[in-house]
Amino acid sequence: MATCCGRIVGGRYHPVIPWIRNPEARIAQGNKEHGELEMQTGFNIDTDQPVRRMPGLQVNDISDVLGAEIIGLDVTNDAVEAEWDRIQALLRNRHVLVFRNQELTEAGLEKFARRFGDLERSVTQRADGTIAPPVHMITNLDAEGKPSRTPYVNSNYFWHSDRAFFPTGSAMVLLYGVEMPPGGGGDTQFANMILAYEGLSDADKALVANLRVLHSFEHMRETLMKRPLSELERSVAPPPSLHPLVRTDPVTGRKSLLLGMYACEIDGMPRDEGRALLKRLEEHATRPDFVYTHRWQERDFIIWDNLCLMHRALPNFEMDKHRRIMMRCGVTSTAIIR
Questions:
Q1: What ranges in the chain are assigned the alpha helix state H?
Q2: Which of helix, strand or coil describes residue 219?
Q3: Tens place of pLDDT for every residue, the chain, 338 residues?
Q4: Residue 310 and residue 158: Cα distance in Å, rounded?
Q5: Quick one: which of 78, 190, 193, 301 is 20 to 30 A from 286 by CA?
């Protein structure tokens, strides 16, 4: 899915495709027990408060694995403030929230996202040569703005935790369906990495307890997208980050696995052996009993706790015929991953 520039007119996204002189140049935590920093991302909440009691709203679990839907709340209305503590508690407990029947603009998404914290900056260069702004579009369009099976950016079709190559990662991600394929498809899958850790054998828990994994933006780009980073991307992307394979939630103390497409090697382990272990663990973590598949409805708006999940988009639609346009932004975590 390509990150493109454009605008929304009449509910439809219209990309602005630049004239590119040289086609070859188109890019191309915890608390004091679990760490030294405190999380500052809007999740400092009482997880014991009653999260299902929202007068006038309908709240339903959407799977046994994770997720809840909220029906009857307009996230662009200032009245959302009255439900804010419950929204945060529900997010902490269910990890993914689906707000049905929303009408969002870029400004509306940004306003809602800033309630949780500062917005992250992108490091991905778009087809027009610029770095995407904090609120941007994720699409299945190629560099010419046409639906494609090989979009300009395709990395979101692989399991990942956003910005794992940063020292802090993303605290949360917000995604709005602007335009979905007719007849369905373009689903989004979420893997609960807390359940994945808890589902490990005792032997595997002991094996991974003290392992550290190197996460690299450049590794992802070269292995999945088959093109190097541009000079501009190199100037804004951080160097690879070394993180614990098992990280601890600074609020709840629960452990989860940190895996995905940025993970390139295990510190102190031969590369082939490390990658084989990472592959085995990812296959375990993405078993059906740890995964929820979201089948998008018109005007769905999803937010999720990025620090305990992996996710990916599914190419289960005619990508070269139909457009899938999503509006996205992320909230920065201020705590080093522990």
A1: 84-94, 106-113, 193-198, 202-208, 217-220, 231-236, 271-285
A2: helix
A3: 444 445 444 444 444 332 222 222 222 233 333 332 233 333 333 333 344 445 678 999 999 999 999 999 999 998 899 999 999 999 999 999 999 999 999 999 999 999 999 999 998 888 888 898 999 999 999 888 899 998 888 889 999 999 999 998 899 999 999 999 998 999 999 999 999 999 999 999 999 999 999 999 999 999 988 888 989 999 989 999 999 999 998 778 899 999 999 999 999 999 999 999 999 999 999 999 999 999 999 999 999 999 999 999 999 999 999 999 999 999 998 876 67
A4: 9
A5: 301
Instruction: Give me the sheet containing 291-294, strands edge to edge.
Output: 291-294, 188-192, 309-313
Measured CA distances, 147 to 13, 119, 155, 325 (Å): 13, 28, 16, 10
Q: Can you tell me which residue has the tokens 């269910």?
A: 94
What CA–CA distance (Å, rounded) separates 189 from 9?
29
Tokens of 109: 């998404």
The DSSP secondary-structure symbol of 164 reads T
Q: Strand (E) positions, the chain?
A: 2-4, 6-9, 12-15, 58-61, 68-71, 96-99, 136-139, 170-179, 188-192, 212-215, 241-244, 246-248, 255-257, 263-266, 291-294, 301-305, 309-313, 325-332
Q: How far is CA 21 from CA 24, 27, 127, in A?
A: 9, 13, 12
Amino acid identity of 287?
Answer: R
Number of other CB atoms surrounding residue 253 within 10 Å:
11
Query: Please, what sign has the CA dihedral across residues 47, 94, 133, 122?
Result: positive
Taking the CA atoms of 217, 223, 229 and 233 in sequence, report the sign of the dihedral they define: negative
User: Which DSSP letter does residue 70 get?
Assistant: E
Asked if residue 163 lies in contact with residue 334, where contact means CB atoms within 8 angstroms, the answer is no
